[in-house]
């Protein structure tokens, strides 16, 4: 009997764990929860030192209007004169307060010829990329358990590619003209970790012994890399 009870409680724990690891933003429990930039407009109810929660405070629904769901300006090409030759324009919950709790966001990515959106991951979102102009060489790498396989594709105007949540991915303009892509992401706040910036440009720097051993290189190489300016194109 004890064994049966143990089995049942183990199954119950497994079932709830499966629910908890569901990989997307939580579903809303109302039509919308337009984010407030601070908690003062919540009527001071939460006090000056409100705790951080998973999401943002909601605006009073009666005060919500169309502008809370509106953003303008994504038609404009962005400046790609930088070391990477790319520029990511983000439209997430920080730009559209009405995206709070909805689990989606958007970016426009501009590329100069040879421009690169360098290897990065989004800790909280899968990504759907659509090429509007130009030709991009894109790819992602699977996890260690899958053997770190590289999946790549050359995309032309109208082509779409998917980057699964958490996996390292990149896009390189291999055409002779500027390229433009739009991407949809499955979080109101996907986050970006650019690999080179995080590893070699952390503040304070990671102990060089850690990086020399991890990358199996001489300390001078690590020193050189840690002295570079790691441009953030986001
Ligand atoms: Mn991305």
UniProtKB/TrEMBL annotation:
Protein source organism: Prunus dulcis (Almond)
Pfam family, one: Cupin_1
Signal peptide positions on this chain: 1-23
Disulfide partners: 33-58
Annotated keywords: Apoplast, Disulfide bond, Glycoprotein, Manganese, Metal-binding, Secreted, Signal
UniProt domain Cupin type-1: residue ranges: 72-223
Location (main, coarse): secreted
Protein name: Germin-like protein
Residues that, per the record, bind Mn(2+): 120, 122, 127, 169
CDD domains attached to this UniProt entry: cupin_OxOx
GO MF: manganese ion binding
InterPro entries, A to Z: Cupin_1, Germin, RmlC-like_jellyroll, RmlC_Cupin_sf
Family indicated by similarity: Belongs to the germin family.
